[in-house]
Amino acid sequence: MAVIKVLTLNMWGVPMVSKKTKERSQYLIEHLLVSDYQIVGLQEVFTEWHAKFIQNGVESVFGHSHWFRSGSLGSPGLLVLSRYPIIEVDFHPFCFEWVSSVYSSWGLVGR
Known about the structure:
By secondary structure, the chain is of the alpha+beta class. Helix content is 27%, strand content 24%. The chain has helices at residues 21-33, 48-58, 101-106; strands at 6-13, 39-45, 64-67, 79-82, 91-92, 108-109.
């Protein structure tokens, strides 16, 4: 039976609130470079510099990635890294009226 190793992690990358974002991201990069994960899903990667920092750091191992750019705080904060080609991406924002507009724009990754 084939096994796929997946890691999901909240990066706590809220701009101007989160502390030591670069240092924590560098630690993650170093871990991922020697890991055997095949797919990594990161939450709260809100800024382009943060997404690119991680993508550039792991591209020798995770040659495929996608950062979701639409939504509040510049993006919904979702970054997917993969050892395999990403064929298609889709984003489904939450649409519950009782959820604030900020949270609803973060959404859910589909497919």
